[in-house]
Amino acid sequence: MEYLEFEMPIKELQDQLQKCQIIGEESEVDVTATCKKIEKKLVDARKNIYKNLTPWQRVQLSRHPSRPYTLDYIKAICGDTFMELHGDRNVGDDKAMIGGLGKIGDQSYMFIGQQKGYNTKTRQYRNFGMANPEGYRKALRLMKMAEKFGIPVVTLLDTPGAYPGLEAEERGQGEAIARNIFEMTILKTPIITVVIGEGASGGALGIGVGDRVYMMENTWYTVISPESCSSILWRSWEYKEQAAAALKLTGTDMKRMKLIDGIIKEPVGGAHTDRAGAFTAVKEQIAIAFNELKDLPEEELVAQRMDKYAKMGVYKE
Fold first, then answer.
1. How far is it, in rounded angstroms, from Cα 117 to Cα 125?
2. Which of 44, 95, 200, 290 has the fewest CB atoms nearer than 10 Å to its CB?
3. Nearest to residue 227, comparing CAs of 56, 52, 87?
4. CB burial class (10 A; 0-12, 13-18, 19+) of residue 65?
5. In this structure, how many other beta carbons lie within 10 angstroms of the beta carbon of residue 161?
6. pLDDT per residue over 307-316, tens digit each?
7. How far, in Å, are 121, 234, 255, 303 from residue 199 at the CA level?
8. Nearest-5° angle of CA 108, CA 216, CA 206?
9. Which residues face 178 on adjacent strands?
10. Burial tier of 170 (Cβ tally within 10 Å: 0-12, 13-18, 19+)
């Protein structure tokens, strides 16, 4: 287990507990009472640390190297029913954007999401979860296919942003994202969106227009990363914590501003500490959202979606 800086008190207690257990196993000393005291301290420390997380600490948890990624969720939720589909039928198959058909129970869904890598080799293969234009065009192709066959769409957001390279811009990165936003607004099938990690800028929004949009508890969703915001405003990354707080990027902030529909609670310590619990929470939320949307006529579904986004940003002085 890798620990973040603010999690070090937990690591120290876990190390103490492990040493205590080893002493009990290797000697005749009864350490049961001592172990129980340490376990209680550990439970209390977890509760105190994770109930008072700052926005920057949630950003750190969203990037934890052990945190599950899109394919982890899809495989856990759909099992062997998932069939990945490839290519945008124009340029190529973007490995940073994955999609395909899968089932939850007897209901089929079109799953689409950004995929990151687990090590240096796979991170390069997946381009660090930063999709090229063909990735967004592949996503749109799959969404149009889902619309044709009356299949609901589930999008899983986890990206530091769309790929900003010269070749991506030459192939129409901005147009591809804008086209997706436009087409998703009028797509005649339910769209359920879940932010499972990083939700940065247009890279996330390119597959983020949904009838129901949820954020997992330790994720973020905003126009720019805290580090980039800090470098623009203060010409340094040192103010990333202040930037994270100012950006109002947490699920609580987004829910309060009515930009998302709900927050999916994570296991204590984050999704990486109890993957099965995180997978179950997302699966249940998808099922709940689909039950709310499945009986709506196509015209009403689209009208409600457009009305939802038209109301965003309205305020009174």
1. 7
2. 44
3. 56
4. exposed
5. 21
6. 999 999 877 7
7. 23, 23, 15, 25
8. 65
9. none
10. exposed
- Asked if 157 and 204 touch (Cβ cutoff 8 Å), the reply is yes
Q: Cα 236 to the chain's mean position, in Å? A: 27
For the CA atoms of the chain, what is the radius of gyration? 21
Inter-residue contact 77 to 94 (CB < 8 Å): no
Residue 227: band (very low, low, confident or very high) from pLDDT cuts 50, 70, 90: very high
Dihedral sign from CA coordinates of 247, 253, 259, 263: positive
Tell how far CA 298 is from the center of its chain.
Answer: 27
DSSP string, 36-76: HHHHHHHHHHHHHHHTT--HHHHHHHHT-TTS--HHHHHHH
Total Cβ atoms within 10 A of residue 59: 25
User: What pLDDT is recorded for position 236?
Assistant: 93
Give the contacts of 315 (CB within 8 A, at least 6 positions apart). Answer: none
Residue with tokens 């932010």: 195
DSSP result, 266-289: PPTT-GGG-HHHHHHHHHHHHHHH
d(C-alpha 43, C-alpha 65), whole Å: 23
Tokens representing 128?
A: 């660090």
**DSSP-derived pairing of the beta strands 191-200 and 212-216:** parallel
Tokens of 196: 């499972």
> What pLDDT digit, counting tens, does each position of 258-272 carry?
999 999 999 988 999
Structural tokens at position 107: 């209901």
